[in-house]
Amino acid sequence: MNKNRFLIFALYVGLQSFLLQIVDQLIGTHLTPGGHSGFVFIAFQGWALYFLLGSNIKGAVKGFCGYVLGILFAIIMIGLLGIFAGAGMWAVPIVALIVVPFMMYFEFAPWCISNVAVFFVGAGAFFGIVNYVEGVTIPGAAGIVLLYCALGLASGWMSILFRTWLEHKPSAEKM
């Protein structure tokens, strides 16, 4: 792709980012009762994962499924913390020692749930919402993470779709 076409692509991605920020400001404030600075960071994670997982629909499915499992493992960890609450500062490390090795074996799972790295991204986004957004519930946090993950994956898909179209569009010199 020449520099002129790349500029068009870069502006398109900038426009996508602009629109994603507006969407976040319009819907993000209605998703939780507590105060927050928005959730668009999760969409940007999902957008990057779309590229890292192959820039295709199969990768997007794998990314979304990975976020779901990451959230489920995070919820399991929260549940286990109640059992180990008496361990004080050791509770979280003990729970991680129990859950993370189990998570690692998903590397041998079917394709759509075998990317353990995405589990960590999804769990991290979920823990961020649960720990830093006032008044959010566990189902609410899961819904926010999955909504914004989907927005990010869709943004990645649209970026690739536009770039592919632009790269295959006949140039003015050839006409």
List keywords for this structure.
73% helix, 175 residues, mainly alpha
Order of helices and strands: HHHHHH
What percentage of the residues does DSSP assign to strands (E)? under 5%
In helices, the fraction of residues equals: over 70%
Major beta sheet summary: none
Roughly what is the average pLDDT, rounded to an integer?
92
Mass-distribution shape: flat
Instruction: Work out the radius of gyration.
Output: 19 Å
Task: Tell me what you see in this structure.
There is one protein chain. The chain is mainly α and 175 residues long. The chain contains six helices and no strands. The radius of gyration is 19 Å and the shape is flat.
What is the topological layout?
Elements (H helix, E strand, L loop, with lengths): L2 H25 L12 H13 L4 H27 L7 H14 L11 H17 L5 H31 L7
Helix pairs in contact: 1-6, 2-3, 2-6, 3-4, 3-5, 3-6, 5-6
In short:
This protein is mainly α. It contains 6 helices and no strands.
